[in-house]
Amino acid sequence: MGVRIAGTGSHLPARIVTNDQLATWVDTSDEWIVQRTGIQSRHLLEASEIPSDMGVDAGKKALEAAHVLPEQVDLLLVATNFPDLICPGTAPFVADGLGLDSAPFFDLKAGCSGFVYGVAVANGLIESGLFPRILVIGIEALSRVTDWSDRRTCVLFGDGAGAALLEKATGPSAILGSALYGDASKSMFLNLPAGGTRLPASAETVAQGAHFLKMEGSGVFRNAAPMMETATLAALADAGLTLADVDWIIPHQANQRIIGALVRKLDVSADRVIVNLDRVANTSTASIPIALDEEIRSGKIQPGDVIVMTAFGAGVTYGAIVVRI
Ligand code: UT7
Q1: Which of 35, 91, 116, 177 has the lowest CB atom count within 10 Å?
Q2: 158 and 188 in one domain?
Q3: H or E element: which one contains 7?
Q4: How many Å lie between the centroid of ligand 1 and the Cα of residue 36?
Q5: Percentage, residues of the chain above pLDDT 90
């Protein structure tokens, strides 16, 4: 029968920072940010807040929506690029917060494609019979790795988490197709140089700002739309569908101009493309599940709707999944 998304949840920090507020921190303007990215505001964690707690809240909401108890979860898969701690990551803290009993958990690091990768992997694990119910959560606290004096990156990002509970399908609602890709020749497009085992954190790395996210913005920009186009068409072919069968496209929320380029390449109506980056900015692995959850809860996405979710990100990774809700 396949695998379905039985419930979703999301969490955004309470603190909202507008472009005008950002313009008091760095040399930028609301006009530049809106014109170049479409972003108007973002939610950012307070210094006292813990990133994994966003995932706990999103996960609780997904379990409630799916009518599944924490002890019924067979595996927790947390997609994140910047874990609470380098070791043991983020998943154990989320498992503890959710009260997952002795279910296994692990972090999956696949750039901003982490949620798409996670759902595709979870789909295979459920189909194999190994884990009947899997909670996939994308969590990202980009504000904690952003150089707030670098206007080229700091205006782009926000914090948040989004979750989906996957289980065996009992009706038409199902994951219909997927396509995952990597292009390791572009591995340094997005990177955080220090703090890993190649360049451990030291007074020098901190002085150099090497513990902040670095990005080759124009390289990412040029490749993003073609990659999401390739993945979308391949995932649809895997599902035996065409764009005419699709009700909604949820692209990774990085930049309105990238989404616009994807819309033109696919030749679809912009009305069928879900966008929330104006309010939440780029939340990396959390961007797609937050948008999915918001529009399921708003009623825009209805049971039976066919959705393509497509992403690209550090690695570089890219991919797409096709789902009937
Ligand atoms: O999840 C994936 C994560 N990353 C991305 O998705 C990023 C993809 N890349 C992008 O979205 C775009 O490349 C950016 C939004 C990052 C940059 O847009 P752009 O149109 O490629 O601008 P640019 O980098 O060519 O910069 C144009 C000018 C430069 O000034 P000069 O050299 O022409 O005088 C920049 O210094 O804009 C300047 N600039 C800014 N000005 C005001 C760059 N950032 C800002 C800023 N405010 N925040």
Answers
A1: 35
A2: no
A3: strand 3-11
A4: 7
A5: 99
The residue nearest atom 38 of ligand 1, judged by CA position, is 152
- Ligand 1 contact, 282 CB (< 6 A): yes
Give 216 Cα–ligand 1 centroid separation in angstroms: 10
**160 three-state secondary structure:** strand
Gap from CA of 156 to ligand 1 centroid (Å): 9
Q: Are residues 198 and 238 in the same domain?
A: yes
The b-or-e profile of 231-243 (16+ CB within 10 A means b, else e) is bbbbbbeebebee
Q: Which residue has the tokens 């692995």?
A: 285
Q: Is the same domain home to 211 and 314?
A: yes
Residue 187 and residue 286 in one domain: yes
- For the Cβ of 255 lying below 6 angstroms from any atom of ligand 1, the answer is yes
Contact 37, 268 (CB under 8 A): no
Q: How many domains does the chain have?
A: 2
Whether pLDDT at 26 is above 90: yes
Q: Is the CB of 37 under 6 A from ligand 1?
A: yes
- Ligand 1 center–CA 152 separation, angstroms: 5
Q: Which atom of ligand 1 is nearest to the CA of 151?
A: 48
Other beta carbons less than 10 A from residue 118's beta carbon: 26
Residues of the domain holding 283:
175-324
Q: What is the mean pLDDT of the chain?
A: 97
Ligand 1 pocket check for 151: Cβ under 6 Å: yes
Residues 160 and 200 in one domain: no
Domain co-membership, 206 together with 89: no
Give the CA angle between residues 292, 255, 322 to the nearest 5°: 35
Choose one of 154, 171, 188: the last residue of a domain: 171
Instruction: Kindly report, residue by residue over 254-298, the tens digit of the pLDDT.
Output: 999 999 999 999 999 999 999 999 999 999 999 999 999 999 999
Q: Would you name the residues annotated as active-site residues? A: 112, 252, 282
Q: Which of 148, 171, 194 marks a domain boundary?
A: 171
Domain containing 144 — which CATH number?
3.40.47.10
Does the C-beta of 227 come closer than 6 Å to ligand 1?
A: no
Averaged over 60-68, what is the pLDDT?
A: 98
